[in-house]
Amino acid sequence: MGNLATRSEATGTGRAEAVRASIRRHGEILRHPEGYPERLVLRSLAYVYAAYALGSRTATAELDAHLGRHRGSRRPSPDVAMGMARGFQRMADGTA
Q: Which structural domain, as residue segments, surrounds residue 45?
């Protein structure tokens, strides 16, 4: 059973790093949105806002970098951020 626990822990660590890498990729799109399709930018906004709302420190840093491009913008509360994520996702899907 020790091996199973070790394997499980390693998989969890790998997943966490994969999520952080995904958040960083979406953050990169938000830092340089020119040239990306609008739909992809909206999906990136949805992803980063949702991850921030769920407490991701990586997403918080990416959101701060994104909001730094907009004068006077501040981070929303997690509840508002989740609503914004849903709205951005609907816009990306064309259902908003």
A: 2-93
pTM for the structure as a whole: 0.82
Q: Are 48 and 59 in contact (CB under 8 A)?
A: yes
Total domains in the fold of the chain: 1
Contact present, 55 and 69 (Cβ < 8 Å): no
Best CA proximity match to 40, nearest among 52, 30, 53, 54: 30
Contacts of 14 (CB under 8 A, 6+ apart): none
Report the alpha-carbon angle 30-69-50, nearest 5: 45
66-86 tens-digit pLDDT: 999 888 899 999 999 999 999
Q: Rounded to an integer, what distance in angstroms lies between the CA atom of residue 11 and that of residue 7?
A: 6
